[in-house]
Each structure stands twice: as C-alpha cells, then as structure tokens.
Design a protein that fits this description.
By secondary structure, this protein is of the alpha/beta class. The protein has a domain at about 5-165 and about 195-220 and about 265-280 and about 300-305: Rossmann fold (3-Layer(aba) Sandwich), CATH 3.40.50. Helix content is about 35%, strand content about 15%. Helix 1 (about 15-30) crosses helix 7 and helix 8 (about 225-235) packs parallel to helix 11. The chain is globular and about 55 Å long.
C-alpha cells in the first residue's frame, strides 16, 4: 500500500488554488477530494469533475459535517472571513475536533496581515499589524485556527499568500479583456506568486508538517503592477496602456485599497524549512509560462475560469 493510499483532501472554499492542488495530489495516486462552494452551478461542475461538492456560505453551514468530512485526512481553508473571523472555523471547528484522521490543515491567508511598511521588507518574524479591513479579518481568522493548534494539538499551518496569478488568471487575461490599467504610485511594489508554486509549497508542507508554522508564499521579485502589465503587453505584441498617476486616476474603493499597503515580502522560510525551489522566481517567468501553456493548446477547465475563491 502506498503512503498516500486513502488520503482525502477537503477544501472549505474549493477554488483556484484548491483545484490545482487537487490535481497535483491525484497525480500522486491514492487521493480523493471534496469541498464547498457557494454556487449550485459550480457544485454541479465540480461533481462532474469527480469532486464531491457541498453548499456552504457565511450563513449556510454544512448540512451534515461529520458525514461529509468523515474520512478527511487533510483540510485546506480559503473561505473569505468576516469581521467575526473565518466562517469555516465559527461553524465547524468543533466538528473538525471530532475527526479522527486529520494529518494536516492549511489556512490560506494573506500578506496583508503585515500591513503597510512603506516599502520595507518583512518576514515571518515581523509583527502582524494589518492596516486594511481585509488584512485584519485574515489575521483574526489565522488566530482562530492557530488556537486549535495551541489548545487542541490540531496540525494547523498558515500560508500568507501574495497576489495569486496563473493560467486563466493573469495579467495576460486582463490585458486581452481590455480592463488592464497601468497605475503609477512611485516607490510602490506588490509581491505575487504563481499558482504552481503555491501548490508545490503546500505539497512540501503536507509531506513535512510543522504544526503552528506560518509561511510567506511569494516569488523573489516584488514589482510595481504597471511593470507587469507592460510585460504582458510585450508578450502579446500589444501596445501598453498609458501610465496613469495613482493620485489622479479614478478607481473603485476596493481597487484603491490594494495600494494602501506597500511592503516587500521575504520568502526565505519556504526555501530553508520546506526545501522549495520556486518554478517561477519572478513575474516574467510566470507570465511566459502562462502564455506557453496557451500556445500549446492547453485549455483551462471551466471550473477554474469561473472560480472566485482561492
């Protein structure tokens, strides 16, 4: 019997990252997957893809959680938190405590937990001091899940993700759809991470669990968003949108809020502790890979194209 025989990944918020992770685990053999969605149509699509799916939302708990998660060995959580914290924790932490086979739990958080550092570098030892509502909510959710580790010995791991991109969800797609803008805020940079690297980091943690640990998940090169859009245009042979001043451009409040934090994220821990070598060390390598995938005729599954939860 293989070491991975009869393993079961359950995803609260089965989205972009969960789907890529599921496919990687299934390729190992001996894995099955299930998870939650807020949308009945997506549940149907997931079930057609041999993934058991259940409806779950902020005010809609799992109908029979102990049955639905009865043989889960691994749990991935990416449900968006509210002011009260993570709905998965609030509604089902007690159920998870009753599961007998849990080997690993991963909570997908955000580097927004660090708040604004005026362009400075942060690592996992840096104080978490979020400066946005999104960051504050994620930090509260982190603390909730880590309390299970501290008080109950549940094998919880926290992954603070930078901006996620990958096939079907990259600057290439925003450029082609006509919604890309090049916003210039001098001195500002974003960290980001390709979904393939998220998956290999999660796999490395699954293979070598260290309960209670927090990991930054990002590539080696923080960069201004306008540089990423410009490079996507170069790859597509299109003219770049004009550079617009952040102070003068009209944008939705939620979009503007992404510029509130300015920090650069260190990723040494995933390399030293998990032994990860990034596939895409910067956005250029990642975008080139996305384009190559398209040119090779690899279609993005519909469930990934429509996924909003990661």
């Amino acid at each position: 019997m293989s070491e991975t025989a009869n393993k079961h990944l359950f995803c609260f918020g089965y989205g972009y990252c969960g789907d890529f992770l599921t496919r990687a685990l299934r390729s190992r053999g001996g894995w099955c997957a299930s998870g939650t969605t807020r949308d009945a149509e997506k549940r149907k699509a997931l079930r057609e893809n041999e993934t058991k799916a259940f409806l779950f939302d902020t005010n809609i708990p799992l109908a029979d959680p102990l049955y639905m998660m009865r043989d889960a060995t691994h749990i991935l959580i990416s449900t968006p938190p509210t002011d009260e914290g993570d709905p998965s924790f609030l509604m089902h932490a007690n159920d998870i405590l009753q599961l007998k086979n849990i080997e690993w739990i991963g909570y997908l958080s955000t580097t927004g937990a660090y708040g604004d550092r005026d362009g400075g570098w942060v690592d996992e030892a840096s104080e978490a001091r979020p400066s946005t509502k999104r960051g504050s909510r994620r930090l509260k959710a982190e603390e909730q899940w880590l309390s299970l580790c501290k008080n109950e010995g549940v094998p919880v791991h926290i992954f603070r993700l930078a901006g996620i991109y990958g096939p079907g969800r990259s600057a290439l797609d925003s450029v082609r759809s006509g919604v890309a803008r090049r916003i210039d805020k001098p001195g500002h940079a974003f960290s980001r991470i390709h979904v393939d690297d998220i998956v290999q980091i999660l796999l490395a943690s699954i293979d070598n669990p260290k309960p209670g640990e927090i990991y930054n998940v990002c590539d080696d090169m923080p960069a201004p968003s306008h540089e990423v859009i410009d490079y996507a245009c170069q790859l597509l042979g299109l003219e770049s949108p004009p550079l617009q001043s952040f102070d003068k451009v009209d944008m939705a409040p939620i979009t503007r809020s992404f510029y509130a934090d300015n920090k650069r994220i260190k990723n040494d821990k995933i390399k030293s502790e998990l032994g990860v070598t990034l596939k895409y060390k910067n956005y250029k390598e990642g975008l080139e890979s996305c384009l190559q995938l398209e040119q090779n005729g690899n279609d993005i599954p519909e469930v990934l194209q429509t996924s909003q939860s990661s």
